[in-house]
Amino acid sequence: MSDETRDIAPRSPTSRWRAFWERGRWWKAVVLVVVYYVLYQLGGFLFLPFRGDPEPGSAAAMLFDYILPIGFGGVLLIAFGLSLGWLRELFGRQPIKGRGWMWIAVAVVLLFNALRFASLDYAAAGFDVVAAWLVAGLCIGFAEEVLTRGYVVTLMRKAGHSELATALVSAALFAAMHSGNLLEGQSLIATAIQVVYTFAFGICMYLTLRVTGHLIWPILLHASTDPSIYLLTEHPGSGPLTTFAGFGNIAVILFGLVAIVFIRGRVAASAGTASPALEPNK
Q1: Has residue 282 been placed in a domain?
Q2: Residues 253 and 196: beta-carbon distance below 8 Å
């Protein structure tokens, strides 16, 4: 087939599907997050017939309430990436380098995660519950980071947006997903605080992505965050270390919001694998 013939040949459905997403756009990121959230919520119903009536907070309840539904969401995200051929791009080296100050985001989150785990009353929590939360944390970290710091960031960069816009949109969509807790009976005030925290935490995870250069590190850092928060909330130890660990969310909020002012840069080309071109005022 000649080059001219190839140029006028109709695209296959697969190539049209990939071409649609390759062009990026912020609204496509919104659509992707909304569709994922709906499918994830519906997917939870798949496991209800097998749930039974486990004790609230037990390892069995964790399995059906968190691990299986979020694991299902992770499978959907992998399938989406395979359909586009994006997995190597997502998990490969990032196309734009981070700045040294961005390591503060990693240090703040990691420090308080470690403090929370050190302050936990493991005897009261139980080994099975702790293990279940660690598995759930890995599922949560994988699904939420692949979606927001993987696909959303990639779509924003392919559309040519600045890294500041990329950070803000990925963090905002990440926070918006947690507003759905209102539908599960969480109070408006608690949800508002959670949305502010998750937005700032999303900024910290974006900075982790930038400074480490690989998506796997925000996944792992996120994977240690949710278990440490929830386990310490339910099974706190005693002493000054536990009190200090309780300031972790405030530290993340303060640093995440301040850090926004210093985010600079832009990926030069529409493809996420292109060489980066930083703005002059980096």
Answers
A1: no
A2: yes
Mean pLDDT of 86-100: 95
What range defines the domain where residue 131 resides? 12-262
- Which DSSP symbol is given to 133? H
Q: 2 pLDDT exceeds 70?
A: no
Helices (H), the chain: 3-8, 13-22, 26-44, 48-51, 59-62, 68-84, 87-91, 103-119, 122-125, 127-145, 153-158, 163-178, 188-212, 216-234, 240-245, 248-259
Q: Is residue 6 part of a domain?
A: no
Altogether, the residues listed in the chain come to a count of: 282
Distance, C-alpha 52 to centroid of its chain = 30
Nearest CA-CA partner of 98 in 54, 24, 149: 149
The whole-model pTM stands at: 0.90
Domain tally for the chain? 1
Predicted confidence (pLDDT) at residue 1 exceeds the cutoff of 50 = no
